């Protein structure tokens, strides 16, 4: 593997940077496909994925490098659909990328913010990424022009999801300041906001809390154009280990007071340092898995 990587590096010396707009993009994908995975045509993409769900373009020098971080538990079907779909599209986007599934061990209630923070730090340990995309496992991108790159401000990559379908509007959003599902931040943007709060166990609240953090750090989420940031939400039941957190509103009320005390800094030099155990790391065929 190392020899192959070195060879690629030396080949790259004579390569040009990838174009600003990747040439192979097709735009909006067929939405009525019975099987989302087969709606993306070029299955050869899966053969090009390196173990751990990594890829780097061979014919040009990529513009930055993206870590896709999926807070995860017990949704294997969704994870299989999403990772295959992403490999297909992110290769067309000529990105250097790696996909991470960050799983919380049972029996603790799910905590999406905590997993995002752990995934962010783990990805930084693993590779040199310029962009971190925190991704719901059930969010399927339906326009390949939605580039998984970062910007000068944090980015909310969703302009509409079938989860919030209203009347004739197939892809909707529940409210203006909403920024859930898929977001993209640079290392410095994520760190400046102090990452996600770690104290939301169970469903809800961590996304609105993160939005407050971003604003209080003098940043603002931006979205792509309306027809570009569209997603299918794979339907699912409520998870018994991610029940609605009845305390979420109370925790959200004191979001500002907690912002600099706990967050991604809770894992580094902090008197209230969070300790957690890594039970397993596996470099699986289509993604890197951390339990
Ligand atoms: C919404 C938000 C989501 C998050 C959540 C509240 C959208 C599109 N998404 O999702 O970003 O803010 O509300 O916490 O509005 N997960 C698992 N296994 C579990 C439970 C959760 O893998 O047992 C992961 C998975 O990546 C999933 C995400 O957490 O996509 C959000 O959980 P959800 O899908 O149950 O919640 P949902 O759809 O209401």
UniProtKB/TrEMBL annotation:
This is Beta-1,4-galactosyltransferase. Keywords: Glycoprotein, Glycosyltransferase, Membrane, Signal-anchor, Transferase, Transmembrane, Transmembrane helix. It is a single-pass type II membrane protein. Residues 169-237 form the Galactosyltransferase C-terminal domain. Its EC number is 2.4.1.-. Catalyses the transfer of galactose onto proteins or lipids. Residues 18-150 form the Galactosyltransferase N-terminal domain. One of its GO terms (molecular function) is glycosyltransferase activity. Belongs to the glycosyltransferase 7 family. The keyword Aminoacyl-tRNA synthetase does not apply. The lineage of its organism: Eukaryota, Metazoa, Spiralia, Lophotrochozoa, Mollusca. The keyword Lipid biosynthesis does not apply. It is found in: Membrane. Pathway: Protein modification; protein glycosylation. GO terms for cellular component: membrane.
